[in-house]
Design brief:
Oligomer: single chain
Helix content: 55-70%
Low-confidence stretches: 273-281
Number of helices: 11
Strand content: under 5%
Structural class: mainly alpha
Number of strands: 2
Radius of gyration: 44 Å
Length: 287
Amino acid sequence: MRSMPIHLSRRWRSMNTVWALFAIELALTIPALALFAIAQPDLYRTRLWRDGFKSGFNSNPEAQIYAMTNREHYEVPLVWSQFITDFNVVISVLSMFLLLCKGVMFIMHIFWPILGFVVHGILVALWGYSVYAQTKPDNSDPRFPKLSSPWYISKGCSAVHDQSVVNYCKQAQAALGVSVVMLFLFAANTLLAILSMIPSKTERLARKTQILEGSPEQQSAMRFAPPPQSAKQKAWDAQSGRALNSPSTVGGMKTPVTPRTMAFTRLGGGGEAKSGYYGGGDLPLRR
C-alpha cells in the first residue's frame, strides 16, 4: 500500500495572532534599532568596562594596550568587544527589513508557515547569540571575583563608581531587556509557525478526499466526459461508419437509383444503372 505524501498546511492557525505579533515586533524593533545604533561605535562600552574595573568587577580595558605594546595576544572579552556592538546593529536592521517583507508577503498570502518557521528560526538563533554575548561575564582577570554576568546586570546601576555612567548603565540594561523580549517574541513566532504547518482535522480530511478522487483537473475532465455508450449504440455506430465508407457513397451520402435515373443513364449511353437503396435491377423504359 502506497503511503500518503507529507502535506504541510499553508494557512496560519490564527490570522489575528499573526497580525498582533507583527505589531509587537514593530514596537520592539524600533527601540532595539535606536538603542544599538546609538551605542555604535563606542558610546558607553569602554566606559562601563573601565568603571567595572575601578569597582573591582572586571578586567582592565588598558590591558589590551599593554598587550599590543609587548606584542602579546590579547582577546577582548565578548561583552566589551566591537564585534558584538556591530552584530547587534546588524541584526536590528535585518529584523526591520524582514518585518517589512513579512508584512507584504502576508498581505499577498504567500507568507506560508514553512517560510515563517525558517525566517523566525534564524532570528531566534541571531537574537539568542546576542543575549548570550550581552550576558557573558568578564572573568578574564583572576584577581577579581567571578561574576555570573556583567556587573551592570548582576550588581545594578547603583554600584557604579562614577555617577556619570549611570545613564549609560541604564541604556545597556534597556538594550539587553529589548533583546530578551525580541528573543521570546521570535520563539513564539516559530512555535506558531510549527503549529500552523500541522494540518487540521478538516484539512487532512479534504486532502485525503482529493487524493482518492484525483486532482481537480482530473475531476473536471470526468465531469465533462460523454456518458458511456451501450452495446446497441456501439453496433449502430459501427454499421453507420461502414456505410459511410462504402464505395457507393458520394460526399458521404448514397445516391438512390430510381426509374428516371435509369432512363437518363441509358439515353446518355452510360450503360445500366446499378442498384442502390431501392434494390431491384433494371426497369423497362416507358414509351
